[in-house]
Amino acid sequence: MRKTLLATLMVAGGVFGILGFITGVSKCGGHQDSVFAAFRACPAAVAALGEDVDQTPLGCSTGSTEIGGSDGTAAWSLAVSGSKGSGSLNYVAILENDVWRVQEAELEVGDRVLKVVPCGVALVAPGKQPTEDDIQQSCEQGNPTACNALAAAFATGSGRPKNLAEAAIFYRRACEGGELAGCSNLGAQVERGLGVDHDDREAVRLYTKACDGGVPVGCANLGVMSLRGQGTDKDLEKARALFEKSCSAGHAPGCGLQATLYLEGLGVDPDPLRAVGLFTRACDQGDLQSCCNLGYAYDTGKGVKADEARALELWVRACDGGFGPCCTRLGNRYKERGAEDQAKKYFQLACDRGDGSACTEVGQTEKAPE
Question: Which of 6, 63, 170, 208 is the most buried (most CB within 10 A)?
């Protein structure tokens, strides 16, 4: 990229070039605003010069800008400095419909060259989807958000082979870099021993760091650990407060977990009506486990008028969405009714989603006489 970018600058400078010592710092035509926004979005660049980077007074600047109507191009090399150092910021930007977008940018600091874009591409070019290479490169340059995205790709096998050990490495890098969602994600792997050694206390530490930093799923996971006394002291009141914090921050499963406490009277006075309200809120926001539990409330008449048809509707919704335990619940209900074909259907779905008891039921159904 460096040769291409510098060549672009040299050609542009030969046609429209401006070379001189700037005695007053100014942002020309808006493209400098865009490149400095890209700079501040790139952790490696910020680490090199500081967030307060700007064009250097009396610094040498060369480049060109060509505009025709609402479109145009700009190619510049700017002397820049910040609280941590100084360097040269080289970039190419294009103007489309009066909006400047940085195509390429690199920062030269001594004998090092850091790519600023694509590192900051997500901020400077809204709507552009970064490639897998962009994300990995951005992570390697120190962008913790990109590391979290890269870890998620390894964890799910999205766009690259599934590798939980690699996912853990990049989640840790994200967490240590300040992307606290990475702390919660790493905690989930550590809690389950996925790609890393199982360590409940370490999971609690990671969930705590995420929760304290405002990551609601971290609060929910920490609440579950407190509820079970897993890796920490069992504390039902702390669990309730953590679920409430998670729910208030918009995390639907946190609302569902809070609802379970009120439905079962765990650490709180039983309040089925409140539980139903929380389950409904969480289900409406897409939490399938809460839909399943809301179905249970309708089936048993806890906190709401009993309505088996509504219960079955909610169970089907949860099962079809991928929540295996609700498929098992449907299988059991149809088995009780003697509807073997329907029971087999839902036990199979549950088995496919990892419910071992349902797999056993499928075997029993298959061996049963017609």
Answer: 170
Bridge partners for 54 per DSSP: 81
Distance CA 326, CA 349 (A): 10
Q: What whole-number distance in Å separates Cα of residue 339 and Cα of residue 357?
A: 19
Residue 349: predicted pLDDT: 94
Please, which contacts does 150-154 make with residues 24 or more away whose CB atoms are closer than 8 Å?
Answer: 151/182, 151/185, 152/185
With tokens 């579950």, the residue in question is 224
pLDDT digits (tens, 9 = 90+) for 334-353: 999 999 999 999 999 999 98
211 near 242, Cβ under 8 Å?
A: yes
pTM for the full predicted model: 0.66
Cβ-based burial of 127 (10 A; exposed 0-12, middle 13-18, buried ≥19): exposed
Say how many C-beta atoms besides its own lie within 10 A of residue 219's C-beta. 27
pLDDT in tens, 104-146: 888 888 877 777 876 644 433 444 566 788 788 888 878 888 8
Length of the chain, please?
Answer: 370
Contact between 88 and 108 under an 8 Å Cβ cutoff? The reply is: yes
N-to-C CA span, the chain: 70
Alpha carbon separation from 190 to 179, 196, 261, 340 (Å, rounded): 17, 6, 25, 40
**Strand, coil or helix: what is 104?**
strand
Looking up tokens 């995420």, which residue turns up?
210
DSSP class per residue in 105-118: EEEEETTEEEEEET
